[in-house]
């Protein structure tokens, strides 16, 4: 009798819409999925809940939970429902629900486990760190920007490049915990992975913060699984203005180490002028890149048509998943 092959372990690192897209596509395949998400989110509903309840950011984990959900569509959509009036104005139901579970069980990790059971998720969602942290950036002119929201939506000159970012720990009982430590479960998942998918997503506010907790970059450097970086299709003003595909990869490897990425998946299909025009107000541009940019480097370039056919200029979940599965 032919022995059944063991299901592959795939870890997806990031946060937000990009991670949601990758997980949605990969969920269609017989693989073990783990999402590792940044704990640097500090805007909107999440900011209020963090300040009032002292919890880790529920808004960071919610998209991954919904992507992996096998519950009814109504329940999944409920987790994304945002109130637009009354005392809950601006709050997301999923954020409130995760906050309530954290209060009930006294643990953010336990809250995620229970939310996962309710949503019948196919896989697991793990915070990159279990410590309360704030994201800090230094711009090329030396200016310091504090907080993920202020990096994500710049009040400063967004044409200035970010030189470096780091995590600033919160005080606990008068003691500063520094540097913030990686979540051991995240490190273990990376160690056991056959494929590690990084991105897509906002480079400095969603992706790289995952590498900044002590032990995370080392775990990724020592991982035996293949590492694939999914490059963004559009730049983001204030974070990656003027970036090419090579700039994205160079920045990732600045934090993970030279030649740490095995594959870069780069979209080659240009969206129509009409679709791009909608992004002009946000000063976002199509990410250019050619094979010549990566000549002489270890990384293998996987170029393909990864673009959604219509709507927002984002990756097509199914096209992307098919390319990623081929790497395992």
Describe the protein's architecture and organization.
This protein is 36% helix and 17% strand. The protein has two domains: 8-129 and 184-326, CofD-like domains (Rossmann fold); 133-175. 45% of the residues are buried. It has helices at residues 16-26, 44-53, 58-68, 73-80, 93-105, 108-119, 148-152, 184-192, 203-207, 216-222, 245-256, 273-277, 317-325, and strands at 9-14, 32-37, 124-127, 133-139, 144-146, 162-169, 171-172, 175-176, 195-198, 226-230, 263-267, 300-304. With 328 residues, the protein is of the alpha/beta class. The strands form three sheets. A seven-stranded parallel β-sheet has the order 3-2-1-9-10-11-12, sandwiched between helices. A three-stranded antiparallel β-sheet has the order 5-4-6. The chain starts with 8 loop residues before the first strand and ends with a helix.
